Amino acid sequence: MTTAAVEDLLRELTPQVLGGLVRRHGQFEGCEDAVQEAAAAAAVQWPAEGVPDSPRGWLTTVASRRLIDQMRSDHARRERESATAAEAAPEEVPGTDDTLVLLFLCCHPTLTAASQTALTLRAVGGLTTAEIARAFLVPEATMAARISRAKQRIKAAGSTFSLPAEAEREERLRVVLHVLYLIFNEGYTASSGRELDRPDLAREAIRLARMARAQLPEDGEATGLLALMLLTHARREARTTAAGDLVPLDEQDRARWDRALIDEGTELAKASLAAPALGPYQLQAAIAATHADAATAAETDWRQVHAAYLILERIAPNPMVTLNRAVALAETQGPRAGLALLSTLDGDERMAAHHRLLSVRAHLLEKAADPSGAYELYRRAAKSTASLAEQRYLESRASRVRP
Amino acid sequence: MKFLISLHVNPAVLDALTDEEKMALGSGHGAFIEALKESGELITTQALADPSQAAVVSVRGGQPVVTDGPFLESKEYFGGFYLIDVEGRERAIELAAQIPDAAIEGLGVEVRQVMFSDGTLEA
Question: Which of B37, B116, B123 sits opposite A138 (nearest CB)?
Answer without folding.
Answer: B123
